[in-house]
Specification:
single chain, 421 residues, mainly alpha
């Protein structure tokens, strides 16, 4: 009799303990740490870019530097201009992550798109300094070699070593480049971590039509870019064109080089969409990230021709004016109008620019449509959140309150034991 009563009392007490220690609510995924890591990575990239910019300027100011050395330094210097230019776009998107992280459950789709935007820009950013494509595309003083490679040459150059000021600056640039690479790689890992954390559950949806639309938009952008490139070259080949007109034309021409450079990155990401569209239910998160990548590049791409920032940043012949604006000036220029070949080319460039803008805007709308389709369907596939008052409890390990519950069990058992005796 005594034993049965003790067992029953203890069983009830244990049941109460289990209820008490299993009512902790589900806590939403905390992404603040990884977002803070991305913030820190960006700060390190900015610091490294500033060092590269200032110290290349310092070497250019050293008297007696041979022209060959100056050309290498100027190439690295102008590459740091491009890093700063792209960095602004990266910072703007990272700022969005800082806003979204407060409600990650609500903003999962937006965060995945933003992860894609940052990663696309980070890749372009790193390739600007670690690969030779950008310097060759923009016809900087020394082409065919990556700025990073040129810095390694500068550090070992006898003329640089002979000048303490130049040697100190070159060493600082070299250290900054390695810090830059480390920060860029760390950001890539943090972005991958964030993407993995935010991945949505499977969803079934047909996105083939909108992806086809994005493919067509890209084809139109490529066609327009080629026309701008070829026809500006045609104007530059017309005899008797004044230097002022030639400078405007050359600015638009080199801007088309940048369009082609960025376009390669856009095409690569659009090709990924073409792969993912076959199994959207499997690739929900990847599609949203890729939408972000394409949109970030599209914005940079359009701003290259429609705003004056890039031409000013890269110190092209005519700064402060957008290439699009310069084309409108060229179409009305008397010297261009006076030469049929130049006038025909200018008109073709003007038409191509408007076709470019139309295709870019159409792509933006298609990307927004794809983002909306994927995020809406993913939200529908996700389990609905229960109201706060009726939330399903999640078992958690006994905490501090469990100590009191256990003590209560022992106390009840002891008192019962005394009374029975």
């Amino acid at each position: 009799m005594y034993t049965k009563r003790m067992v029953g009392i203890v069983a009830v007490a244990i049941a109460m303990l289990l209820v008490t220690t299993s009512i902790a609510p589900v806590v939403a995924q905390d992404v603040s740490a990884v977002v803070a890591g991305i913030d820190n990575d960006m700060a390190e990239l900015i610091d490294a870019t500033e060092i590269i910019h200032m110290q290349t300027d310092a070497i250019l100011g050293v008297e007696g530097m041979p022209d060959e050395v100056k050309d290498m330094v100027e190439t690295v210097h102008l590459s740091s201009h491009a890093l700063a230019h792209i960095g602004v776009y990266m910072e703007n998107n990272i700022a969005k992550l800082d806003t979204y992280k407060a409600e990650p459950e609500k903003n999962k789709a937006k965060m995945l798109v933003t992860v894609g935007k940052i990663e696309a820009l980070r890749k372009l950013h790193q390739d600007t300094i670690d690969a030779s494509d950008f310097v060759t595309t923009m016809e900087l003083p020394v082409t065919g070699k990556a700025p990073h490679e040129l810095v390694h040459v500068l550090v070992e150059d006898p003329d640089v070593k002979a000048s303490p000021e130049a040697k100190s600056a070159a060493d600082a640039i070299h250290d900054a480049l390695h810090a830059f690479d480390d920060a860029s790689k760390a950001m890539r890992l943090n972005l991958e971590d964030l993407e993995y954390t935010l991945a949505k559950p499977p969803v079934i949806v047909d996105i083939s039509a909108v992806v086809e639309g994005i493919d067509n938009d890209m084809a139109e952008l490529i066609d327009a870019t080629e026309i701008i490139h070829e026809k500006t070259d045609a104007i530059l080949g017309v005899e008797g064109i004044p230097e002022e007109v030639a400078a405007k034309t050359e600015t638009v021409h080199l801007s088309s080089h940048a369009l082609a450079h960025i376009g390669v990155y856009m095409e690569n990401n659009i090709a990924k969409l073409d792969t993912y569209e076959a199994e959207p239910e499997k690739n929900t998160a990847k599609i949203l990230v890729t939408v972000g990548k394409i949109e970030a590049l599209r914005k940079l791409h359009q701003d290259t021709i429609d705003a004056g920032d890039f031409v000013t940043t890269m110190e092209l012949p005519v700064t402060g004016k957008a290439p699009h604006e310069l084309v409108h000036v060229l179409v009305e220029d008397p010297d261009v109008i006076a030469k049929p070949e130049a006038k025909s080319a200018a008109d073709a460039i003007h038409d191509a620019l408007h076709a470019f803008d139309d295709a870019s805007k159409a792509m933006r709308l298609n990307l927004e449509d794809l983002e909306y389709t994927m995020s809406t369907a993913a939200a529908a596939a996700a389990p609905a959140a229960a109201p706060a008052a009726a939330s399903t409890p999640t078992p958690t390990p006994p905490g501090f309150e469990a100590i009191f519950a256990i003590a209560g069990i022992l106390a009840v058992a002891y008192l019962v034991h005394r009374r029975i005796r």
